Fold these 2 entries.
Entry 1:
Amino acid sequence: MPQLTMTDHSVELARLKRRLEREHHARLEAEQIAENGLRELYEQQRRLQLLEAIAVKANQTSTLNDMLQFTLTQLCQFTHWPLGHAYVSLPKQCDRLYPTAIWHNYLTDEDAVEDFCRTTEMTFFDRGIGLPGRVLATGEAAWITDIAKDRDFVRQASAQQLGLKTAFAFPVLAGQHVAAVLEFFSTQEIQPDAELLHTMAQIGMQLGRVVERQMAEERLKHDAFHDSLTGLPNRTLFLDRLQHAMNYQKRHPKYLFAVLFVDLDRFKVVNDSLGHLAGDQLLSQIVPRLLTTLRSEDTVARIGETRDIKDTLARLGGDEFTLLLDDIHSPNDAMRVAERIQHTLTTLPFSINEQAVYASASIGIATADQQTSAEDLLRNANLAMYRAKSLGGACCELFDQSMHVRAVNRLIIENDLRRALVDNHFILHYQPIVSFKTGAIVGFEALVRWQKNATTLIYPNDFIYIAEDTGLILLLDMWVLQQACRTMRQWQIDFPQQQPLTISVNLSARLFAQNNLVEQVQAIINATGINPASVRLEITESMTMDDAERSVQILSRLKEIGVHLSIDDFGTGYSSLSYLHRFPADILKIDRSFISRMDDSPECFQIIQSIMNLARNLGMDVIAEGPETAAHVQQLQALDCDFGQGYFFSRPVDEQKATALLHGACVYSMLTKDTVIPSLSA
Ligand code: C2E
Ligand code: MG
Ligand code: MG
């Protein structure tokens, strides 16, 4: 075995030493790697905890400000950066940021902190200005490693005084819109940290969801209180404002306010003739004009307290608008506003589909006293509006208590009417129509009466309009037609020797507007077995003029099934002569108002004469409504009028008396043009 020399020993020692060192290094390295890994793991865990805390909070809160404050605190603690700000952009002023939250810690120079924060608050961070403005403009995060070297950093002096070196900011995006910006500062110089930026982007997204949720909630809230077409407050919000005004009035008895109920006149005509889209367009165009009539002054009360009430325009639906007029001196102020509204609506036409459309409104005004509720007040204004409408529209009425009494009565009548229809409490009276030439009865007009009880008979003028409004008229008119046809059929059988008598029946506007009118009439003719040529349906001019084209069609179809048509109350409504000649009517009934004034008004006489000429030219017969005296009859005869229906011959009488007239073969003798002697008077 060879002997190891001294040199060999030292070589071996050196080798072992090197090996030991290598192993030591390797161990150190391994330890370093392990430690780094651990730290990374730890950092990652902190990041996850941060993200989780923010996600949890984002799920719980729906207000952005709350969320921003929370995030600021969390992030400053996470990064150990000592200062942070949050800014929001307002939905309607999204070109500017407003500071909303601040967080700072570890900064000892309180004065310098305050100075920096004040500078921040006083700076307008418009799009592109300063660090937050840059983020607002780009929608992306921004990192400034050394504030001193950044030429666009507007708060440089106070930042340096505070010892701030590095800054970064990131946006909160709701869709494309930068809803908020968060910025952070460090007193050390730190290079851009990709990991951190990534985390911030994730946080920005979380906050974006809160913004979107908040916006959706606000939209929902807005929609619940606003009208979708015009964006005006709706009924709910209006009533709420009204309630505020009423509460205020309770505390300040001198405070006065008014409610205006504005309903457009003939809006239905626009809707029906130009279509619903055109109707919507008209409403949208009307709103800005209505808004100009409101006072623009602020909400500070003149009688000394700041209130949250102001003039409010709302849309209740359809063509109904309401206006709350705040703090007026007297109802006259409200009247003046109503006049302004009329003026602004009527002076210039609206342009719908390049067509000029004129508008006007019926306006009702009500003021409150201590007793009324918000609902009552609105109802009162509504009643006053109805009054304005019944006066022909385009005018304004102030509510008074009698309107309420009338409305209550009306409701009672309405209910009674319904019951009367079910219990069959209606009867027909018949008024003879007499030939001026022969003096013979040629037919009857059936006139409905309401037998309220054994002693009370109610005439149509006191209930027909209510039946019209409620739609009960549809049933009533059909009942009248059926009953009248049945009676006439019987008379025709019982009195065969006379030329076939005719039966005239009034049609209501409501029934005339029904699509199945012709079918309904046909069904009754079939059911009663009457010859349709004996049936005369009476319509008025105003019923036909709303939609004259349709009227021509309906009337033609009625003619086709064989019935005759009369134009009732002629001369009182609005006529378009151009349509009149297209209406296949057989008879004109001259309104009673002309006949009754014939004696003392030469004008009336002339009007009758012109109507006679018109009728002749159109090939129609003429019935004079309401001749009461021999003089009337003479004059009408002189004018060569065909028929008369008036008290001179007979009042409307019940079926029994009408039958008696026929039995007596009543002929009103008109011996000469000067003497007329009725042979029988009912
Ligand atoms: P109208 O169709 O013009 O009927 C004629 C009205 O004039 C009747 O009133 C009749 O009694 C009245 N009258 C007739 N001759 C004279 C006269 O010489 N002097 C005076 N002062 N009045 C006379 P009434 O029965 O009260 O009916 C009023 C209106 O009610 C009718 O006017 C008609 O528009 C409507 N009406 C009546 N019955 C019905 C019905 O069944 N359905 C519908 N929809 N309306 C009806
Ligand atoms: Mg009539
Ligand atoms: Mg009439």
Note: Confidence is low (pLDDT under 50) at residues 297-306, 671-682.
Entry 2:
Amino acid sequence: FLYFIGRNKGSVQTMGILQDKRLWGAVVGTVALFAAYRVWKSGKKGKKSHNTAKQGLDCVVISGPAGVGKGTIIDMLQKETPGKYAFSVSHATRQPREGEVDGVHYNFVSVEEFERMIAADEFVEYAKVHANYYGTSKAALKKVSAAGKIAIVEIDVKGAKIFKDRVLGQLKCCFFFFTAPSLEELHNRMRKRGKDSEESMTKRLETAKTELDFIKENPSVYDRVLTNDNLDA
Ligand code: 5GP
């Protein structure tokens, strides 16, 4: 278009210009270019607002011993900010507890299936916790990301460390560790929850001790260590 104007500089024969095929070609070309620019720009705007909703955050990693109230905190987060977060559903080889739904709380799989997934490199991280396998699959994270939401990744401390190393520079994540005022308090909460046998509670309290030691030895894994001193507050 500019080329055409340059070539016709000084011309006052408007009608002559309008009859020139090259002018029409240039006008149509410019309009098409402008329309394409608007489409591209609106696409970019759409993407931008999508990121704004996530505020640049891809995931929130939450760890803490059994009975500390992670489930309550995750439920609150989702209720108070509807549509912003979605739970990344892990794979687990343990048996479902009463009320747990396959595909919602966990993807419950056999040890064989879990080991097949390990060999196929389908996990971002996995760990053996309380003698069972637990893992965050790449597919679970992709699902949350495709929905434009921030993933809530509830994993143990060893998994969190691996996760941090693997997503470094690729995803923006915040790491939180929740703890209780004491191990006795944790035991009380587990009893109150009533989901575990005495044997299972003992195992979980032992794991809690190792998790607290891990935090002391690896203070850089978590951005915040928070004490949940009042489960209902
Ligand atoms: P529970 O059997 O009580 O549901 O979970 C036991 C532990 O496994 C918890 O500490 C929980 O954070 C952890 N866990 C759950 N999902 C995952 C996962 O995908 N990866 C890892 N590493 N740990 C997980």
Note: The two ends are 67 Å apart (CA to CA).
